[in-house]
Amino acid sequence: MAEVKDLFQSADWKTEKHMPVIETAGKVKKGEMVSATISVGKEIPHPNTTAHHIRWIEVYFLPIGEKFPSQLGRFEFNAHGESAQGADTSTIFTHPQAIVKFKSDKSGAFLAASYCNIHGLWQSAAQITVE
Ligand code: FE
């Protein structure tokens, strides 16, 4: 039987439009805020229509040596061209991009997950080094 963890896909973000792209300095001094921008479709734009769009992005931080992650944020993208006139009749679209700031005393993995309403769950990760 399939498990939730089996549903996450991963690929090169330069050729796969669903991959969450993490942009961050990657190295920070203890006590300083780490800033990361997460977006989907950076290289190849993902469709943004009522029928096909990126619904959400979630981000986590897993300190080295720990078992459980901290959820840093969840970002919902809820406008995809719909209006009272029907699907794809509005000019209003949210773009799947989020900025998160956080601090940690420990280095670890910055983990991002995204969900396309048609093509499912995608994941990516970046190393954050705290000096
Ligand atoms: Fe898709």
* Main pleated sheet: 6 strands, mixed
Percentage of β-strand residues: over 45%
CATH topology: Immunoglobulin-like
Measure the end-to-end span. 43 Å
Ligands bound, unique: fe (iii) ion
List low-confidence stretches: none
Indicate the CATH class.
Mainly Beta
CA-based shape? globular
| Beta strands, count | 9
Please give the oligomerization state of what you see. single chain
Please, what is the average pLDDT?
A: 96
Q: Radius of gyration, rounded? A: 16 Å
Alpha-beta content class: mainly beta
**CATH level-two architecture:** Sandwich
CATH homologous superfamily placement:
SOR catalytic domain
What is the succession of H and E elements? EEEEEEEEE
| Count of discrete domains | 1
